[in-house]
Amino acid sequence: AQSVTQLDSQVPVFEEAPVELRCNYSSSVSVYLFWYVQYPNQGLQLLLKYLSGSTLVESINGFEAEFNKSQTSFHLRKPSVHISDTAEYFCAVMETSGSRLTFGEGTQLTVNP
Amino acid sequence: KAGVTQTPRYLIKTRGQQVTLSCSPISGHRSVSWYQQTPGQGLQFLFEYFSETQRNKGNFPGRFSGRQFSNSRSEMNVSTLELGDSALYLCASRTTGGITEAFFGQGTRLTVV
Fold it and tell me: A60 falls in which pLDDT band (50, 70, 90)?
C-alpha cells in the first residue's frame, strides 16, 4: 500500500514570491508521482508527472518538481507565483503496475497581492 | 476534443434514497475511474472500469457500485444514502488504463439531507 503526506495544509504567499509545496510518500513498490491542481468548483488538472528518467520535471506554467528517491519526496516549486496560481494542489502516487491514484490531503496555496 | 463530462453537476438527495451519477469519458478512452472527495477524508479511490469490467476497487461498502457500458460511459450508483455520502464525486478517464494521464471531469456535488 502507498501513502502520501503533504506537509502543509495551507501556504499563503505574496505575489512574485517563490513557493515550495512539500510532498512525501511511502510505498513498498515502485511508484509514479504526480501533482494535480484543483480550482474552486472544478475537477483536477494534471500539473506534472514523474515516470522515469530525469528527476526534475517541469510544467508549462513555471512549476517544477524534483523526485528524491532517498528522501521519498516530490516537492513542488515555483520561483515566482501569480494571483492566478491560487488553488488547491494535490500530490499523488500510483504503483508502476497499477492504475489507482493515491492522493495526499492537499495544500491550499493562496497568493496575495 | 471534448473533455470528461459528468452529469448532473449538483444533486440533493434525502437519506435512504439512491442516486446514479454518470460519466462520459474522452472519446477513445476505455478506462474510467471514480473518486470521492470530502473535506474529512480527502480524495479516495472508489473503483475503476476498463472495457466494461471492474478492474480495481477501493475500500467502500457495497452500497457503492458502478458499471461501464460498451461505449465506455460509466455510471456509479449509491444506494441507501447516508449523510456521510455527501461529497464531490470525480470521474477520470484514460486511454488504456496504464500510466497514461488521467483526465478528470468537473465532478458531481452530491448533498444528502
Answer: confident
Q: Give B93's Cβ-side CA count (13 Å radius).
A: 25
- Cα separation, A71 vs A30, whole angstroms: 14
A100 and B35 within 8 Å at the Cβ level: the answer is no
Q: What is the pLDDT of residue A97?
A: 78
Residues 42-101 of A with CB under 8 A from B: 42-46, 49, 51, 90, 92, 94, 96, 98-101
Over residues A64-92, mean pLDDT: 95
Predicted pLDDT of residue B1: 65
For residues B95 and B27, give the distance between their C-alpha atoms in angstroms, rounded to a whole number: 9
Cα–Cα distance measured from residue A49 to residue A65, given in angstroms and rounded to the nearest whole number: 8
- At residue B99, the pLDDT reads 66
φ, ψ dihedrals at B85, nearest 5°: -80, -5
Contact B42 A104 (CB under 8 A): yes
Beta-carbon separation of A101 and B58 below 8 A: no
Contact between residue A88 and residue A60 where contact means Cβ atoms under 8 Å apart = no
3-state secondary structure of A74: strand
Q: Alpha-carbon distance A36 to A22, whole Å?
A: 13
- Interchain contact, A103 vs B43, CB within 8 Å: yes
